[in-house]
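Session log. Operator J.P. requested a structure for one protein chain; no other inputs attached. Running the standard single-chain path with token output.
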Amino acid sequence: MNAPETTVFVTTIGDAANFTDCIEHLRAQASIRPVEIVDRVAPMSAALQRMHDLCATPFYIQVDEDMILFPHAVGELERRIQAAPENVALVCAPLWDCDTEREIYGVKIYRHAVVRRFPYRDCLSCETEQFARITAAGFAVELLPLTGRAGCLGEHGKHYTPETIFRRWQRLFRKQEQLGHRDWIEPWAQGLLDRYIASRDPLHLYAFLGAVAGIAGDPALDRELDFREPNAVLTRIQHYFPLSREAGKP
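Structure written below.
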């Protein structure tokens, strides 16, 4: 039997619901490939760099534990990068984001021989910064087209809790505004409020409160997210908007 050409790396911070679902879907892939777990490595740049250090195959796929891949996903990603020119450093495919109900980028497969030359740096957006260095060196990043839900290779963010969705939107607003992507992020503030008013879902409340915290908070530091750090703003928010453990409602 030929040795596999691709390793699947799964990053986890210990979120049991997401991790269990993620692994179950990897076991159901039509193309089974070796899976390596990057367990509780932080900050995010260090977790991504661990994949460079451990990979022993020509390609590797980066899967966060909140990604649920459809059965054909691994095989399709592998097929895409094998068919791509040698200067394509990575292929990125869309996932269906269950929170925003739209496509996002996404799950990625990397050509290890290329990307290992561009180690991750601990900065505000380590993947964006790495992509810039890769393309400046003459390599290509291939983004598969956004063609609706049918074109997605999986789902993202299926098991949010009020706490994790708060952190998501807080980070998104702090990070994207600082990166100069205000036009993209700005409409979401009103949209998240409208969604909560319509649903009265505590998950939607905490998404909106996370956006407010991101808007009103201090600028993000020029480093990547570290899940080990306490979130003082979330602690204060929980005091004013407590969640019932039984009902999951404020």
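Operator note: The mean pLDDT is 93.
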